[in-house]
Amino acid sequence: EGKRRHASQLCLLVATVFVLLNCCTVAGQMHYDDLPVYYYEDNLAAPVNADWEYGCSMQTSDIVAEELSPTFSAMFLFECNNPFACQPTPQANLTILDICSEYGDYACCDTAQATYLQGSMAVQSMLFGRCPPCINNLWKLWCGYQCSPYQKNFVEVTGGFPRNFVEQVPGLPDQPPGGNPLPNLPTAYSTTFRVSSVFAQHMYESCAGTPLNGGLVVGETYADYEDLLAFFASTNLFQNITFEFADDDAFYAVAESCEGQCPCETCQLECVWDMDYIYPAPCTIVMFDEPIDCDTLGTIMFYGAFLVVSFYALVCWYYVNVARHDGPDEAVPKSVSIIFAGLSLATAGVAFIVIGLILWPILINYEYVEVFNSNWNICTVVAVAVGIMMVLLGEVVAAGVVLYLITISHEGVMDASTEAYFAGFSHAEDSDDEDDEPESEALHIEDYEPAPKRIHSFSGSDGGFEVSKSIQGGEEGDVQPDDGTEDKVEEAASETSSHKRQQAKEKKKHIVTRYFEWHGRFCARHPFWVLAAGALVTFGFSLGMLELEIQNNPVLLWSTTTSQSYLQMEFTNEHFGAFWRIEMMIFTDKENPGAEMLTLPVLNEVLSIQEKVVNILQPYIDDDGEEQYARLENLCYRPIPGEGCLVESPLNYYQSNRVLLNTAGDPQDYVAACLSAPLSVSCMSAIGSPVLPDVVFGGVPNGNNYTASTALILTVLLENNDETTTQAEAWEQAFLDIASANYTTVDVAYSAQRSVQDEISREGKADIPIVVLSYLLMFFYVSLALGDWYPVPKPWYMFFVHSRFFLGLSGVVIVLCSIAISVGFLSICQVEATLIISEVIPFLVLAIGVDNIFIMLDTFEKTDLTLSIEERMGETMAEIGSSITVASTSESVAFLLGFITKMPAVQAFALYAGVAVFFDFVLQATCFIALLSLDTKRRQAKRIDCFPCYQIPTRPKDDGEQPEAAPLLDPKEAAEKEIALRKKPEGLLQLFTRKYYGPFLLHPIVKFFVVLIFVGTLCLAIDQSSHVVLGLDQRVVLPSDSYLQTYYNELYEYSQAGSPFWVTVGQLNVDYSDYQIQQPMCSLSSCDFDSIVNQFGAAPYVAGTGFSWLDDYIIWATTDACCYYYVDDPDQLCTFVDASSNPGMCAPCFPEMTDEGRPEEVPFYNYLPGFLNYNISGSNIATCPMTGYAYLGNVEFNTNVTIEGGFGHPVETSRFGFYHTVLSTQKEYINAVRTVYDLADAVSEQFGINVFAYTSWYVFFEQYLTIGFTVALTVGLALAGVFVVTLIIMGNPWMSCIILATVFMITASLVGVMAVWNIDLNAVSIVNIAMCVGISVEFCSHIGFAFDKAHGSRPRRAYIALVDMGPSVFSGITMTKFFGVSVLAFASSELFQIYYFRMYLTIVIAGALHGLCFLPVVLSLIGPPRGSLYKHALRWLRKAKAGSN
């Protein structure tokens, strides 16, 4: 992109100016009086060296002056061979004419020479006059060369030209009758000019930032003063000047500095740019010789304080809940004394630290020592060091003793009664049962369900938990008191009817619970009707997919049609046309990468490739179905009207001529000569444009050693419009075929405009097998995991009955149906789909949806096997209906709220994901219930899975679900045996959780360290989140084997040129002829110092100056020799020859100027088109080397309006060109956009003129300017949705806050891992972060809901929740996602590897750890009481009502 040099055509014209700079100006034919004349008051006539003597090296000839003209006598100088005649003479006219007036007393030039010099300098003033010190220093240089009275001391004549040379000079008047007028004197054709290197350097610095007409900057074109002066020497036709540089015995003058006189745009010494308001300097503290972010240090200090407070809290908890209950009369144990001694020591350490910090400012003049690379007061160092050691020692002693005592106490409790432990230490925690109904549930028969429930009780023999069974019991997990209550319950149960018990139970149930129970029974009772309704709904919505539209335009994926960048792109395309199509090849040495490329074999092969490209003839089918041929001449960009295509290539130095290439000698020497004279006609391209070395060379050592370049670059620009897109794509395909061929000496990295889209499409097809395999693996796992494999079915063929593969497959089909409904419904609503949706949504919905299947099935299997299927399903939904509703609704709302963001890709994802998750829940809560009931009937009938028509005949003993004949047992054993037959055996995972994992996790010491570890992880994640890199490298979205990978690698490694951008006036119909409007838009010395062009030219990430059509037009208009019109045809400009030879035929375009020296309104608009199309070929070049060809595409006229009193049209809008510096990282691209956007806003506000910066890639990077806000808004809305839905359904603010905090911690962990695992923040990762919030709810809500329903103390309730729901969370959520994610690691695309595999894996691991480790621990410590706000409000109303009665 950096190769679009729109102003290249002007460089030819500028070149010609310099070629004839000192030779083709006839003073009598030009009007210089109105041009600025620069002269100096400093005494340049004084000798630099005291040993210097007066003397001249060159003289004029009276013969030439008489025979030709005084002007030509100034051109043809002769060597002084008469010491008397070559003495400086008084030249009063120099003072009168203000030309080199410092030499007025004595000079080596006469009036003719001075007048000629004035004409030449007038042309130079047009080119260098933007910065007055630059042109002033050039005056000093040439005045010294021609007029200094000490000329002979630094100018030496070294040779002359032949006598017939004058006959070869074009433009001379007719020869006199006597023949050649040259005198018989040694001519001064070749001279050596010794210049002070100090003066030359200062002169170069003053000119380095000066822009030339149409697209060149002095400092970019000429690397140093030697190159600049060598160029001046090469363009002098009548004298061959060789510059030498020395520290003494050389011409010297005090050079003027541009600093303080020129804007930063033209004077780099003025560029002091404060960008802190855009890029705030990060706060750092130097420690250990390394800068440390203040945020990181603050996080470390916070966590350190948290550790200290945690240890203090642990000590206080132990004393309050354990130690002080030893008895009031008992002496305080020694251990407690040790603990408090440690705390006292730590407290004293804190006091020392505080005192040390206080002493620092007090003892400001006291001795300092260097610590952590900073000066510290010695008293502070001592006090802080002692304090830190005391705190650490005290904390370690106190905490160590406490942890030891807790371990001993815990072992004692476990040995006595684990049940007592989970009820809480003695006096440590009160049960939350006081929040239940006031009556004791254990003493009322109507509160007990006839169906047996599992009861977690302690067995003292193994120190763990086991499931004991009882015919009657309280809530699941209640520990029944060993006081005969159980016998009473059994006795009452035998006397109470089932109907009464059911009525009492129903009366106590919440209305939501009663609904879910009815819902489960209904769906199980009418499975076929439910399935038919689900199929009908799915089919109906799926028809909407016929209206599906997929958004392939990358612009509309990342930018809304109302965004700033999109509107600016539309404005630019409407008024100036679309950006070019770019085709590029980068050549490197085939055998030795890194070798120099300017060799004949390489250049010959590159020329052959270039010829193939230029001569492409590619057949294609046009829109009418006819066969046509794509040709470069039909598509290419032509910078010079009437000339050929612009093909940027190093072969342009040879005009792409193979004969010249092979006869011009060593390529390095030839190119070096052209680099010193870039505007020489022999070094330009075949169409007359100069070769820009930064564009055609790559891998340039030292930044400017182009002859040693290690890469050559070929660039072709094609016009970009809808009418030629088909032809252009066909031509590009042929271009790619040529580039992809194998060559002898070079390797080719290449890219065409169509390449990215082609490769992304290929990537999508290449990764389909991986994606499908990922989904299939999840499908297979779900289908297999739903089967009943423990205990092992006997005989072996019962596997086919116990399998639930068809049920699992049905669950997967439900997921696909929900996606179809989502796509169809949103297609009807005209919401366009994206590639991200097709890749992410199926995985997301499956990952979110299958956990409901596992939990539903697991809860169903825990119900009483003796009940009917409808009753069991009703109990299942009554138990977990609210839980899965909370999870699914929270996820759906979290996704849907993401639509509020302004990023189309995120909006589309949010809608499709939210709708799909919602319908997945609806289908699971209906169709899956029906399928589960049918599958249960199949199993009961001993029918084969997937083939229910086949039944396996078995004996009762072959099936573990059938009771066996049993001997007579005592009543208690008989009851236990009956329960065992009516309950499904406990699974291995649940057994492990109950006996090992649960007790371990809820051990006090383990809980303490779990909290410390997870809080520390959160602090680390928050700290790392500030280091997440923004952007999306193009290479990531491409296949790893794509040819574009090589192209982008070499482009970033070798590229020397930045991309162009424009500052566009977005305010239509501005009056550009108004002086007050011109001032903030131009960059001349008379313009505002802080004008828009000047400020942009000086900004970071901008490569030097801008190119303003207004600047050049003002110079052109104020130069008398530039614009004349035919009197008979005012809208036609006449040539300079006609204007000078026939004064009555032509008239000046600008006879009068405004008071400010600017064109008046009517002529301003009348002749602006003439400037834009001004032809400076022929005689015009000598007098007016200024044209607007480069700006033809930068000015748009309002052709519907004509200026009153004239024939011109006003300017509707215009733009000014700039170039970015070379940008190679995403950070640089983002900072560049932020710079120009903020600067455009600032100057728009400053001057009241609406301007904006634009180039083609801004639309992709605008998202990063507000991406932080987008992430915060997306995550914040998702978290808010989770909280609100959880609160509404659970009615427990305390629990909602805990779930919300856990989800936030999981999300923060993901963002922190992004920084560590090199995952950039962009639209793709934002989608995954939003998805993280939804998936995280799955890991938390079920355990939180189970905790809310459990009875007992907090540790006991947390244990019950973990045992009941932990296995389902692990097998149904964690493992399903883990298997699916693992396959993505083998994808060929880095996009899948980085943004899907890494991020999804992080979500799964972080979610599992927080849901199965952190959340149970937090609930055991600060979990809320049982019951919801609704329940407590209802109880309060009942009490109030009872009190009123």
Which residues form runs of ≥5 with pLDDT under 50?
Answer: 1-45, 63-74, 163-184, 326-332, 412-501, 959-970
What is the count of DSSP helices, taking H or I runs of 4+ residues? 49
Alpha carbon gyration radius: 44 Å
The oligomerization state is: single chain
Helix-residue proportion: 40-55%
Mean pLDDT: 75
Largest sheet: 5 strands, antiparallel
From the spread of the alpha carbons, the general shape counts as elongated
- What structural class results from the helix and strand content? alpha+beta
Question: Approximately how much beta-strand content do the residues carry?
Answer: 5-15%
Report, as a whole number of angstroms, the end-to-end distance.
Answer: 85 Å
- The count of β-strands is 27
